[in-house]
Amino acid sequence: MNTTFGVQFRAIEGGVVLELSGDIDGTASKVLTEAYGGAVAENNPKRVLLDFTHVEYINSSGIALIVSVLALARLEHRQVLASGLSDHYREIFEITRLSEFIELHGDLAGAISQIAEAAR
Amino acid sequence: MREQATRELAAFSVPSEPGNERQALVLLAEAVSASGLSATQLERLKTAVAEATMNAIEHGNHQRSDLPVELRVMEEEGAVVVSISDWGGATSSDQAPEEPDLDRKLAGLQTPRGWGLFLIRNMVDAADEVSEGERHTVRLTMRVVGSSESSRSQG
Predict the structure, then answer these.
(1) How far apart are CA A110 and CA A104, in angstroms?
(2) Closest Cα of chain B to A77: distance in Å?
(3) What is the ipTM for the molecules in this complex?
(4) Residue B112 domain-assigned (yes or no)
(5) For A84, which of A53, A77, B77, B81 could close a Cys bridge (C-beta 3.0–4.6 Å)?
(6) Strand partners for A11
(7) pTM for the full predicted model
């Protein structure tokens, strides 16, 4: 039922990818914020890719958390991209207008190659 | 007055503890499995019910685990109706949250939170509230349109 949130980050050509898993709700705040901070401190990336392929559930607190990460990234002049959203959560990104500020990609591999292309 | 065709699909409750909306979603999905909602409609309804249940747990029952959030799933004249009840009484109009504005949130002029009611309103065909004494109920309606898209109004 409830799945603990997890995140792993790694450098890719032109940016970093944060691979998210589990439930994104209020309890994910510390883990996601620390992972974002770690990824940025280690790599100073121009682009941050959030991969939702293994995310099962996002609630309004999770949306708020994504807004916070996006706000921080914009303050630092980093572009945020997303991949792997289900059709339902893609719709939610559209009605909340997150999709106007986060570039959405269907799958992780496609997003990574686009970021690499942009960096060349 | 015409008699309404109403059938109860399920009734259950969850203790008012954070995260228990997920329990409600499992039971909701079972209850509406034969209702004719499309997969898209089911996902929308689940999001709306999750948010209403979270509100009931947090703001209605103030996370008191001895107070249940009660859910009732009905079929009513071509629609699935889910009622979510807590014991927080009526919400006064001056407690209505500010409409979420992403531009303002990103500029730090509005809290990043406050998406719950916005999601509820945008996910279902109708969302109504009624209070009787301390009992406060949110009623969510999703019209059954088979495998085609919901006819919910946009905007």
Answers:
(1) 11
(2) 13
(3) 0.92
(4) yes
(5) A53
(6) A16
(7) 0.91
